[in-house]
Each structure stands twice: as structure tokens, then as C-alpha cells.
Amino acid sequence: MTRLITVSGGKGGVGKTTVTSNLGYALSEFGIDAVVVDANLTNPNLGFHLGVPLYPVTLHDVLRDDAHITEATYVHNSGLRVVPAGISVDDLKDTSPERLKDVIHDTVGEPDIVLIDSAAGLGNEALNTLEASDELLLVTNPDLPSVTDALKTSSIAEEAGTHVLGTVLNRHSGQDHELTPEEVEDMVGHPVVSVVPEEDVVKQSITNKTTVLDHEPDHHVSHKFRGLAADIAGLDYEVPSRGMFQRFKDMLGLK
Ligand SMILES: Nc1ncnc2c1ncn2[C@@H]1O[C@H](COP(=O)(O)OP(=O)(O)OP(=O)(O)O)[C@@H](O)[C@H]1O
Ligand SMILES: [Mg+2]
Q1: Where are the beta strands (DSSP E) in 33-150?
Q2: Between 179 and which of 5, 29, 142, 144 could a Cys-Cys bridge form, CB atoms 3.0 to 4.6 Å apart?
Q3: Is the pTM higher than 0.90?
């Protein structure tokens, strides 16, 4: 049966789309049939992260009932299937986000996992996304405002009977002013399932219109996402530890 997992967190800019694209890519690497859906209908950017911002048919057309979801499903070079949203201003008109649940259930071929990239906030758009899924993966940063928003998101999801898989603590750099993973766990009430460091390679990969895993497959951030993917899919994978030499090279910005 297909697992429908929303990637959300309440706060804008915490890394939801980054997690969706990299996690989806990592799942595909493991041979898992994964689909990523851009349910951020007002500010979609999953297409940018995966290299193709403009698609002829998008989720907006599907929600307007002008196309079937199979027509808005594209195959990325990794094998990952992508359902992008439309980026034009016209796409903001006449869409029915409340149809999201029905159209996602039409996804062809019963994929193993559908990852739904949510809009920020807890407005209708984000709530419809939560409603369309069975599971929630929270994304937060190590600061109080984003953790507070993640907590609100998880409470709403739990009230709706959505299973919370845990929290991805993104943009972690271990500085004194940051909340620690333990503090985030205590506050959100769910385990931190992955700590993704603040690294320029994330921005570089987005500029290069691809995932970190594609851009720098051996980077420790790529291994982090593989570890998260394996965890979610119930596979065995040991995240390679970074030796002292590698950490030194990272500090110098060397590959
Ligand atoms: N681990 C990281 N290290 C460095 N920069 C990061 C990291 N994760 C995300 N970023 C930066 O943060 C920006 C925002 O990330 P992203 O678009 O994934 O957030 P979002 O939560 O989806 O935002 P929105 O709420 O607007 O949809 C990225 O463009 C990237 O520059
Ligand atoms: Mg986003």
C-alpha cells in the first residue's frame, strides 16, 4: 500500500522542499518507487530544486480538473517521479486545494511512498496537505520560532489522526545559541530522526538545480539523507562516519 507522507513544519524557509527533494532522491536510489508532490500551491519551488521550473501540465491543472494527475507526473533522471505545481500568477486562480486528497489517491501505479511538500503556515493550503496524508515528517531549525511552529503542526496532525514520524532538525551548526536535538525532542514531543547540518553544499545543489545527493553523492549531507530514507523505508543503512581528514577537507571547502 502506498504511504502518503507530508513534509511540513509550520514555519517558512526551514527546509521542507530541500528535505522532500533529497529524501525522495535517496528513496529512489534505494530502489523505492517514490513520488514527490509540490503541494505548495502559492509559492511552489520543488520544480526549481529538481531542475525543471516550468512544466506544461502541473498539479494546478489537475486541481482545476483540466488534467489527470498522470499527465502532471514527470520522471526525474534519478527515476524519482515528480508532480510539480504551476509557478505563474494565473495558477493562483480557480484552484481547489481541498481536492488534493482525491487527486493524490489517483497517482498511477501504486508507488511505495508519496512525499508531499507542504506550504508554510497552518492555513487552508497546509491543512489540506496534512489531510491528504497518513504520516507527517516535521522539519524544523534549531530555534524557538521554528520549533514552536513544528509543535503546532504536529498537534494539529495528531488531532486529525496523522502519524508523526519525527522531526528533521535542519540547518544545525551546533552553535551555543541553537537549541540542541534533545531540547527539540522535548519541546516537540517526537524524536529527532535526522540532524542535517548547515552546509553550503545545500545552496550549491539548489543553484545547480539538483539534489545534494546528485551534486555531491559522497558528501556527509548526502549520507544524512540516505540514512533518513533508510529509516523511513525500514532498510539497513549505516551513515558513514566522517573521519578527521574529511572534516578538515570540509572546513577548507575541498571535495
Ligand atoms: N541544511 C542546509 N544548509 C544550508 N542551507 C540550507 C539548508 N537547508 C535549507 N537551506 C537554505 O534554505 C533555503 C530554504 O529552503 P527550502 O526552500 O527547502 O525551505 P522551505 O521550508 O521549503 O521554504 P518555504 O516555506 O518557502 O516553502 C534554501 O534555498 C537553502 O538556501
Ligand atoms: Mg518549500
Answers
A1: 34-38, 74-75, 81-83, 113-117, 135-140
A2: 142
A3: yes
